[in-house]
């Protein structure tokens, strides 16, 4: 049994491309960065803590499977070393998008796979570069009204309307969306889950 420790519909959709059946078990954690914590370290720590929190919830379930494998991921938008979280207001969104406007930033996505007892743990961090065109305040306000940026790190979704701001990107598109498919498939194989075999019913 594979357990996805995430409430993100985007991660669920992406994982379904690799694995037919899995359980979704999101767990709330404190996502506050530590003092002077590097963005890369923060993103990996978030994935590990999400996995641990999901394991804790899973263990008390009556149908808990001792052979369960857990997958957790975290994505952060980073500019000049600063981690941009999810906007809490239009002003917050405007502040973020102004910083990203006309500039390059990084989208860092982490992945953690582990077993129920946390004896076997594999983590990966994928760093992507995204270049934005210039964005006007009118566009920021109009974009906010769509509702799309409300729950997105950095206040935009590359898989949605936010793509109109993206001049170019290098790296893994699926990682920017929320789940790096290449790395996920490689890591799943280490736990005996082979996506192509799974999907071909073999």
From TrEMBL:
It catalyses: dTTP + H2O = dTMP + diphosphate + H(+); UTP + H2O = UMP + diphosphate + H(+). Its EC number is 3.6.1.9. It is found in: Cytoplasm. Keywords: Cytoplasm, Hydrolase, Nucleotide metabolism. The record marks 10, 75, 159 as: Important for substrate specificity. Its cofactor is a divalent metal cation. The keyword Hydrolase applies. One of its GO terms (molecular function) is nucleoside triphosphate diphosphatase activity. GO terms for biological process: nucleotide metabolic process. It comes from the Bacteria. The active site is at residue 74. InterPro entries: ITPase-like_fam, Maf-like. Nucleoside triphosphate pyrophosphatase that hydrolyzes dTTP and UTP. May have a dual role in cell division arrest and in preventing the incorporation of modified nucleotides into cellular nucleic acids. Belongs to the Maf family. YhdE subfamily. HAMAP family: Maf. This is dTTP/UTP pyrophosphatase.
